[in-house]
C-alpha cells in the first residue's frame, strides 16, 4: 500500500516496539477519526492515516477494497487508511492494535470478512451465519449451521476443510470449524469478536472421540509436543486426529520434528 519505511524513532532498551515515532521526510502520519478524516488531538485514539508520494495506486483487481482504503484527505491529498489503531503524543505515534478485522497468519495479512464471505459462499444454505477469529496465529471459524444435528455437522466440517484445501489460499484456511447455536453480539447488533473464543470451552472439542486406551509413553510425549506447538491441551488429542485440522502447517511440522 505504501513504501516500506514511513516513520523513524531512535529506540532505547526500555522502549516499546509499538512506538513508531515521527514521519520521515516526504511522509505524513495522522491519527484520524470519522468519515471526514478529522485529526485527533494528542492522546486520543484513532486510525492511522499515511499520506505522501509513496502511497500506492491501489489493490490489483480489487476496486472495492481500493475505494475503502485509499482515500482523498482534504489537505494531504491521496492517503491510505492503515486500519491500525494509534495514538499520538510527544514521543510520536504509538500503535495500539487493529481497528478493523485484519490479522496476520504466518506473516501474511488476512481480512477476516473475506474468510467469512468465502465460507458462506462455499457452504451455501448449510451455514446461516459465520464469524472468524484468530487464536495463536490460527483461524477459527464459528459457524451457525442450518441443521445442528451432529452427523450433518461432521459432514459439513469435513466438506469445508476439503473445499478450503482446494480453493482457498493457505493463510485463509481455518484450522478449525466450531459449530454454535448463535454468535455473540454487541448491544448494537454487531458480532462481538472478542467473545468468540469464550465459546471454545464448551464446543471446541465437542464430538471428539475419547481414546479407548491411554496413550503409551511415546504417544504421550508426541501428544504433549503437538499440543504445545499447535495451541491445544494434551487431553484433547485423540488417536487418528488430523495434524492439519489442528492448525498444523509446514513451519509447525519442522518445530515439532526438532522437539522430538
Automatic annotation (TrEMBL):
Signal peptide: none annotated. Coiled coil: none annotated. PROSITE patterns: CARRIER, PHOSPHOPANTETHEINE. GO terms for cellular component: cytoplasm. It comes from the Eukaryota. The keyword Phosphoprotein applies. Residues 213-260 form the Carrier domain. Gene3D superfamilies: 3.30.300.30, ACP-like, N-terminal domain of ligase-like. GO terms for biological process: amino acid activation for nonribosomal peptide biosynthetic process; secondary metabolite biosynthetic process. One of its GO terms (molecular function) is phosphopantetheine binding. InterPro entries: ACP-like_sf (IPR036736), AMP-bd_C_sf (IPR045851), ANL_N_sf (IPR042099), PP-bd_ACP (IPR009081), Ppantetheine_attach_site (IPR006162). It holds the Pfam family PP-binding. Keywords: Phosphopantetheine, Phosphoprotein. This is Carrier domain-containing protein.
Amino acid at each position: 500500500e505504501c513504501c516500506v519505511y514511513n516513520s523513524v524513532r531512535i529506540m532505547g532498551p526500555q522502549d516499546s516496539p509499538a512506538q513508531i515515532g515521527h514521519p520521515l521526510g516526504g511522509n505524513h502520519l495522522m491519527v484520524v477519526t470519522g468519515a471526514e478524516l478529522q485529526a485527533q488531538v494528542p492522546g486520543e485514539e484513532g486510525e492511522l492515516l499515511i499520506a505522501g508520494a509513496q502511497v500506492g495506486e491501489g489493490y490489483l483487481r480489487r476496486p472495492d477494497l481500493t475505494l475503502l482504503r485509499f482515500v482523498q484527505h482534504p489537505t494531504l491529498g491521496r492517503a491510505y487508511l492503515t486500519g491500525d489503531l494509534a495514538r499520538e503524543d510527544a514521543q510520536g505515534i504509538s500503535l495500539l492494535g487493529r481497528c478493523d478485522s485484519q490479522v496476520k497468519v504466518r506473516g501474511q495479512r488476512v481480512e477476516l470478512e473475506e474468510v467469512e464471505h468465502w465460507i458462506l459462499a462455499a457452504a451455501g444454505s448449510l451455514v446461516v451465519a459465520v464469524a472468524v477469529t484468530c487464536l495463536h496465529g490460527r483461524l477459527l471459524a464459528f459457524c451457525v449451521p442450518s441443521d445442528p444435528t451432529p452427523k450433518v455437522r461432521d459432514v459439513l466440517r469435513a466438506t469445508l476443510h476439503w473445499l478450503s484445501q482446494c480453493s482457498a489460499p493457505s493463510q485463509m484456511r481455518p484450522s478449525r470449524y466450531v459449530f454454535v447455536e448463535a454468535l455473540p453480539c454487541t448491544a448494537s447488533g454487531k458480532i462481538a469478536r472478542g467473545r468468540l473464543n469464550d465459546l471454545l470451552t464448551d464446543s471446541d472439542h465437542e464430538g471428539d472421540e475419547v481414546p479407548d486406551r491411554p496413550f503409551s509413553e511415546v504417544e504421550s510425549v508426541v501428544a504433549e509436543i503437538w499440543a504445545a506447538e499447535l495451541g491445544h491441551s494434551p487431553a484433547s488429542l485423540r488417536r487418528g486426529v488430523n495434524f492439519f485440522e489442528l492448525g498444523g502447517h509446514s513451519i509447525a511440522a519442522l518445530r515439532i520434528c526438532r522437539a522430538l
